[in-house]
Design brief:
22 helices; 8-stranded parallel β-barrel; alpha/beta; 5-stranded parallel sheet; Rossmann fold; TIM Barrel; FAD/NAD(P)-binding domain; single chain; globular; 660 residues
């Protein structure tokens, strides 16, 4: 309370008083049934957010009119009374932690998927064609009779939500869903009372608010989620959003200000701000709208630092802050901030792994399960909430202080094992020490620092730096379990001229940055090569050329991070990408790149970075195979990859020792 007095001050929402000003943003629950109903896993997902200290928990998307407005299959159906048992259990769970429960009411309009709608028909403010993913479909203009049907559906859904224990509802009127489509001239070219002037384009918003108020009464708060700016040509602007807010003010109790519209295929990189955006990238929109209304205004978009949030609220730029991915990374973020443990909060990296796996229809197969590179418990809701910590008393030796080794130490120590972690260098972090240097990846450094702090605070963990583990050392320690986390090494590129002093491997970039010339050629356009290329071009003013053998960049990147990187590339005149180019030699003149037809081109370079991938230290790892009763290999020494398998498998290698 003393550290963040504004953040943890109560907020009045109509007749309600919320205990603090941290909300969980609308997030769909995992584990929904085929009908879209909540399961035990779904309920525990929201209960975890309430337990973590959020003042209000939004239960995510819910359909108000399934026959005309379903965008991706399994969505909670508030137009089906069969949803009530699960909803009541869920709101009960949220209330057990003195949090308030909301639910987001949506109608996708022209963004519906025809395969889920009755008779395959999709409706919008105006007709024509609408893209959906890489395809498109015909849109039928809503008649006034159908508009009334949908308006009533919003009111009925709110009434069901109220009966189901929700304390208020959040009407999704932004992001290019149906109501936002009415506001946006590029989606609404009607000439009747729902088109043209701002008052006409906003009419359906007011009708929905009035219908909810009529059915739910004067003491049931109504929140509207809007886009402060569509950021699309011909879309709704900040001026439109301000005008809409003033029209709505007397009919609702709160505004939740986000940004962008799905009318833009790349909207996701601002809607779920990528690592290339500043924290709180949308806050200025909420700040401007707040100047024109006297109801609470919520901002959202890339927040996770309590000090940053406190400063924004204390300056009266918003009344509350909604967190999404930050609470997936660390569900206890609010409670840690409240109780003075903010230094233990792990920040979301904004890699968008969690969002990309189900980002249909832009990804071919929705996985239904996501992982987090900095939270090994993400997605294991039932296991985390209901588990019994296994007790152990083994002596555990861990070889390697990278992310897999550090997580293994923490996992083992949490169960009572005595851990010795040996790292051959003078610091922890492993390969992540090279990854955190770009400005947009600095939160990786925070992750390593928090893990290191947790390890040093544990009485069960001994850290030995500058310690090379040999068979003799293993014999001296005499561990019951040996966890090998040696990491990986860069793949050697075997081409003529590779010994040229201008050549450095991808793991040496930041150790040798003072030797970086003005013209840089990066051999390899995977995620690592592309990120480093963006960093050198954007933040260090280098002329960068990336040569990639495949026909696309960063095939190993999550979808939303991939399009965010493409967006950066397109804005950088000093970054050139050459696809289907293979490095065949390095000469005095530069890098020789061969195209798929055998044609060669020389790319001048002062510095040449080899980023063609990593390979495991398997042979070295295998030398430890029979040195202890139990030997476990984890992380990149098994198979090089991204952070997720290293963190996940490393943590549970330690946590699951001595299972009987």
């Amino acid at each position: 309370m003393k550290t963040f007095p504004t953040l943890f001050s109560p907020l009045k929402l109509g007749p309600l008083t919320l205990k603090n000003r941290i909300f969980s943003a609308p997030m769909s629950a995992p584990g929904l049934t085929a009908e879209g109903y909540f399961t035990r896993e779904s309920i525990l997902f929201y209960e975890q957010l309430a337990k973590g200290g959020a003042g209000a928990v939004c239960l995510g998307e819910s359909l108000v009119h399934s026959a005309t407005g379903n965008n991706h299959g399994r969505v909670f159906p508030l137009d089906d009374p069969g949803c009530l048992p699960g909803l009541i259990k869920c709101t009960d769970a949220v209330h057990r932690y003195q949090a308030k429960a909301s639910i987001e009411l949506i109608h996708p309009g022209r963004r519906s998927d025809p395969i889920y709608n009755a008779h395959g028909k999709v409706y919008g403010p105006s007709g024509g064609r609408c893209h959906y993913g890489d395809g498109d479909h015909e849109v039928t203009e809503l008649t006034e009779e159908m508009i009334d049907v949908i308006v009533n559906a919003f009111g009925d859904a709110a009434e069901i939500a109220q009966i189901g224990g929700c304390d208020f509802v959040t009407v999704h009127a932004g992001h290019g869903w149906l109501l936002g489509q009415f506001l946006a001239p590029n989606n609404n070219w009607r000439t009747d009372r729902f088109g043209g002037s701002l008052e006409n384009r906003a009419r359906i918003f007011l009708m929905v608010a009035e219908n909810i108020r009529k059915k739910c009464g004067p003491h049931f708060p109504i929140d509207f989620r809007i886009s402060g700016d569509d950021f699309t040509e011909g879309g709704a602007t900040l001026e439109d959003a301000i005008g809409l807010s003033k029209l709505l003010e007397d009919k609702i109790d709160m505004l939740h200000v986000s940004a962008t519209s799905f009318h833009d295929k790349r909207a996701g990189i601002r809607m779920f701000p990528s690592m290339f955006n500043p924290r709180g990238v949308n806050a200025y929109l909420a700040e401007e709208i707040k100047k024109h209304v006297d109801i609470p205004v919520v901002t959202v978009g890339g927040f996770n630092d309590p000090a940053h949030m406190e400063d924004l609220l204390e300056a009266d730029k918003a009344d509350a802050i909604a967190l999404g991915r930050a609470l997936l990374v660390d569900p206890l973020l609010p409670e840690k901030a409240r109780t003075g443990q903010e230094d233990d909060i792990i920040y979301c990296l904004r890699c968008n792994n969690c969002m990309s796996v189900d980002f249909v229809p832009y990804v071919k197969y929705p996985l239904g399960v996501s992982h987090c590179p900095v939270n090994p418990w993400h997605g294991l809701i039932e296991e985390k909430f209901c588990h019994q910590i296994p007790y152990g008393d083994q002596k555990v030796l861990i070889v390697g202080g990278g992310p897999a080794g550090m997580e293994a130490a923490l996992g083992a120590a949490s169960c009572g094992h005595q851990v010795i972690l040996c790292e051959k260098t003078d610091s922890l972090g492993g390969a992540l020490r090279q990854a955190w240097h770009p400005e947009f990846k600095k939160d990786i450094k925070r992750f390593v620092e928090v893990l290191e702090s947790r390890m040093k605070a544990s009485p069960n963990i001994e850290i030995r730096l500058n310690t090379h583990v040999t068979p003799e050392l293993v014999q001296t320690v005499g561990p019951d379990a040996l966890i090998v986390a040696l990491g990986a090494k860069p793949i050697d590129l075997e081409v003529p001229g590779i010994e040229d002093p201008r050549v450095i491997n991808c793991m040496e970039i930041h150790q040798r940055k003072e030797y970086m010339g003005d013209r840089v050629v990066i051999i390899g356009g995977g995620m690592l090569g592309l990120e480093e290329g963006i960093n050198l071009a954007k933040y260090h003013d280098k002329e960068v050329t990336i040569l990639e053998m495949q026909n696309r960049l960063a095939s190993d990147a999550p979808y939303l991070h991939y399009i965010a990187m493409l967006n950066e590339v397109e804005q950088l005149d000093n970054l050139q990408v050459m696809l289907e180019r293979k490095c065949t030699a390095i000469t005095e003149d530069g890098v020789v790149g061969s195209d798929k037809n055998g044609g060669e081109e020389i790319f001048p370079a002062d510095t040449i970075i080899v980023a063609v991938g990593m390979e495991s230290r398997r042979e070295e790892s295998e030398t430890f195979r029979n040195l202890a009763p139990e030997v476990i290999m984890v992380g990149d020494c098994v198979q090089p990859g991204q952070m997720i398998p290293a963190v996940l498998n490393g943590y549970f290698a330690g946590y699951n020792l001595q299972r009987t």
